[in-house]
Specification:
single chain; mainly alpha; two-stranded antiparallel ribbon; rod-shaped
Length: 470
């Protein structure tokens, strides 16, 4: 009867071999079906010597593995704890399930502790469990030492108390990322940057390491993103900008530092849309848009996939570099690419401002201001700009009295501005008061009867408009 019972137990051990599920990740869950392999000693010759370092797996150990596995699988951790403790103590190298299921069980035990001393004791057991897993299964092809260290780091971050910087976890997470590469768990990559960021905040001398960590993690995420077949691909796409945002807000890297990190990468990837998009996005987040590296990346990206936004950004950068002709060209392109009249009007008005302020070309400025008004008739700013240029154009007349006629056409534009756009009323009224004071006086008009109040007068030159004498 005893023999029959043993056979039943052994048969049940074989059955649960396909039931293990790794909690940590989806790929682990698949693997755990094959994790529990009952070690039943094959018949050997009585004289054969024992092989050193190979643990003897007793029938009792196999029974305990079966018991804690079934209980943990059903989340009955209270029932799983005792047989797990026994298996962990007596045969720690018998089966990977001691560690995959053990993580769940010990985490549950940690949650049941009532005081700091017992919490620390169980926490130490949790950390030691990873050391033992490395000792017995660190050479596992799918879950090697680097992967185990990542899990250890994650648990340290989650459960270690009274440790703000989590420095021990930092070292494990770094080794895990380096060892696993594109096969690294995304949580490990995320926590590596979060922990490194925390250490930097506490110690500014960590800046260089933090930058290196960010660069390395970004490279790994780029590798994952480049392979849509990887299960972590979608997660990596979401994680990368979040980590970039954290890095940007940290202040660890100034623009010069970023340029050193990304110049070669940009130069080598001028036709790689993904790389250029990532670089441009990062520079925007850290507000380094005056950088030449950013400008180079943005121009290259714009050639691949031009948009109104990218053209406008390039125009702004060109303007800041005093490359006004290039800025105008990009704003014209932005106008063509824009999908709304509002945006087109704004781009055309910006060109008008450049011609006025930076190139001192009033006629071209008015041309673009009028373009803006065709697209947006209630653009009061365009009328104010035209009026201001008129007021500066007294030189079109040799006669000092006739020269004052430009103030009439200027005020006409200021009046029109507040008529179509109430938002500029205050500015328009200030300009009207200012330039009305320069209208021709009664004495001036006495010698210029054609300028009598109420008459129509044509102001020539580049202005070429009629106005009413005041």
């Amino acid at each position: 009867m005893k023999t029959k019972n043993v056979l039943v137990i052994l048969f049940s051990v074989v059955l649960f071999t396909n039931c293990f599920a790794q909690k940590e990740s989806k790929k682990d869950k698949k693997d755990k079906k094959a994790e529990v392999k009952t070690e039943v000693a094959a018949p050997v010759a009585p004289a054969a010597p024992a092989v050193p370092e190979v643990a003897v797996v007793t029938e009792e150990c196999n029974v305990n593995i079966s018991l804690f596995n079934e209980s943990a699988k059903n989340k009955q951790y209270a029932d799983a704890l005792a047989p797990w403790n026994a298996a962990y103590k007596d045969c720690p190298g018998a089966n990977k399930a001691i560690y995959s299921r053990g993580r769940e069980i010990v985490q549950w035990e940690l949650a049941q502790t009532k005081d700091a001393a017992s919490y620390q004791k169980v926490f130490d057991k949790l950390m030691g469990m990873y050391d033992n897993r490395i000792k017995y299964f660190g050479d596992d092809a799918r879950y090697p030492t680097a992967w185990i260290l990542g899990l250890k780091g994650l648990d340290y971050v989650q459960f270690a108390k009274n440790d703000e910087t989590k420095k021990p976890a930092y070292e494990w997470l770094v080794k895990s990322a380096e060892g696993m590469g594109e096969n690294c768990e995304l949580d490990v990559l995320r926590q590596l940057i979060v922990v490194s960021n925390g250490i930097y905040k506490a110690d500014a001398t960590h800046a260089e390491k933090y930058i290196t960590d960010f660069t390395n993690v970004s490279a790994i995420l780029d590798q994952i993103i480049a392979k849509p077949e990887l299960k972590t691909n979608a997660g990596a796409v979401q994680l990368k900008p979040a980590l970039e945002q954290l890095f940007a807000q940290s202040g660890a890297a100034d623009c010069n530092t970023l340029d050193k990190l990304y110049k070669v990468k940009v130069d080598q990837n001028l036709t790689n849309q993904d790389v250029l998009t990532n670089v441009v996005g990062l520079y925007k987040r850290v507000r380094c848009i005056d950088s030449q590296v950013f400008f180079t990346a943005a121009v290259a990206l714009h050639k691949i996939q031009p948009t109104a936004e990218s053209a406008a950004a390039l125009a702004t950068m060109s303007y800041k570099k005093d490359e006004f002709t290039k800025a105008i060209s990009f704003y014209d392109e932005a106008t063509k690419l824009a999908t709304t009249a509002e945006d087109k009007a704004e781009f055309q008005f910006t060109i008008a401002q450049i011609y006025n302020k930076d190139l001192n070309n009033f006629s071209r400025s008015r041309e673009y201001a009028r373009n803006s008004l065709e697209l947006k008739p209630n653009n009061g700013k365009a009328y104010l700009l035209i009026g201001s240029m008129y007021a500066k154009s007294r030189g079109i007349f040799d006669d000092p009295v006739l020269a004052k006629s430009v103030f009439w056409v200027a005020v006409d534009k200021f009046q029109k501005a507040k008529q179509v756009d109430p938002s500029v009323t205050s500015d328009a009224n200030d300009l009207i008061r200012t330039y009305s004071a320069y209208f021709p006086s009664k004495d001036d008009i006495f010698f210029q009867p054609q300028l009598s109040a109420g008459k129509s007068f044509f102001v020539g030159g580049w202005i070429g408009e009629s106005t009413t004498c005041r």
